[in-house]
Structures are given as C-alpha cells and as structure tokens.
Amino acid sequence: MVEYIITGEPQRTERFDYPPDAIREIVINMIVHRDYRDSSASIIKIFDNKIEFYNPGNLYGGITIEDLLSGNYTSKTRNKLIAKAFKEIGLIERYGSGIMRVRRICKEYGINEPKFEEIFNGFKVTLFKQKLDVIKDVIKDVTKNVTKENRGNLIIELIREKPEITILEMAKWLKTTPRTILREIENLKRQNRISRKGGRKNGHWELTRKP
Q1: Of 17, 29, 100, 127, which has the maximum CB count within 10 A?
Q2: What is the residue range of 157's domain?
C-alpha cells in the first residue's frame, strides 16, 4: 500500500508500507545465499502487518544470528559464482553487509526492527509494517483508562498494534503485574480470541476469530 504525504511541495511524496530498498536487499540475499540442493521453495508471505521471507538453507560457515546482528563476523558465501555475478553488476556493495543494511534502512524508514530466525533448516526474515512513533502514540491512547473490566480488550488492542509485544511490556502499559496479564491471556485463549505462534524470544501473538 502507498501513503500519499502532502508536504507543501508541488509534487506529493509517496511512502510505501515497507521500504522498497529493504525488500530488494532481502530478495537479492535470498537468491545469493539459498541452498540450491534443497528442493523446497523460497517463500514470501504477505500479511496485513508484516512480510515474511523464508529461504532454504541455514546460515553458512558457522555464523549465528548473534554474529549477524553484531556485525562481528567474516562473510562466507555458499554460492560463490552467483555472489560474484551480483557484485559485478552492482547489486551487492560488499559481501556480508546485507543484514546490517536492511536494519539500517528499516530504522531510517521509521519502522520496527526486522526479525531474523533460523527455522526448519532455513532462514527467515520478517519485516514489520508498524511505525515506531505511531505504535507508542497508539498504545498510550489505548491505555489511558485501564480498568479490570476492559483489560482484556486493551490486551487485544496492544496485540493488534504490536504482535511481538511481551508480557512485561503489556504489564507496564496496563499498569499491572505480569501474573495478571498471564491470567487475562489465558482467558482470551479460552475465548479463542488470541493465539501464540513461536517461542518466547522469536514468537508473536495473533488475533483469532471468536467461535
């Protein structure tokens, strides 16, 4: 989706939900780094609030997610000829800089930090649509008047705006204890209003329909 921003200039400014440069960088990395011995497909899933990019093949050369995020590693390429071809035509600036560039682009664009995971013998990148400053403003507005009766509905709104929100963050915004939040969440799960996907560190909440 495209947002049109009126700036006072003769021509309006167009802003996409996601930075095109980050998407381009991720797709290039999928082509360069996938494990072509694996018969499974590279997959891109588009949701209302995020885009997931899955590529067959774990990180190559003993590199970990922590190494990628710190930038403290030496890049090793699984597909040297493909990487060389992309570098020669100018689509790769330098080896091993893709992840840091995607993070920088997202930060400058004002959206949430992308998530990087190793799952199912592959590598997944998730781009989130939420704008950092907008999330904070919406959450503050949602949580102005917190009562015991409306706490469950406020949790729903928090999850809607930030699916990766933690129990501790919910407790902070709703001015209560993590134990209380856990009790409310269990109640929402029993009502089939929310579900949890993934683990504690890399998971997220999803809204589900009432039965």
Answers
A1: 127
A2: 132-207
Question: What is the residue whose two structure tokens read 């009502």?
Answer: 191
Other beta carbons within 10 Å of 33: 20
| The pair of three-digit structure tokens given for residue 164, joined into one six-digit string | 């990766």
CA distances from 207 to 151, 175, 185, 196, 210 (A): 16, 22, 12, 9, 9
Q: For residue 19, what are the CA distances in angstroms to 36, 53, 103, 105, 131?
A: 28, 15, 11, 7, 12
Question: Do 52 and 118 share a structural domain?
Answer: yes
pTM beyond 0.85, yes or no:
no
Tokens at residue 166, please? 């933690």
- The CA–CA distances, whole Å, from 25 to 49, 73, 204 equal 20, 19, 24
- What confidence tens digit (pLDDT) does each residue in 35-89 have? 999 999 999 999 988 999 999 999 988 888 888 888 777 777 899 999 999 888 8
Residues 15 and 61 in one domain: yes
Cα–Cα distance measured from residue 119 to residue 199, given in angstroms and rounded to the nearest whole number: 12
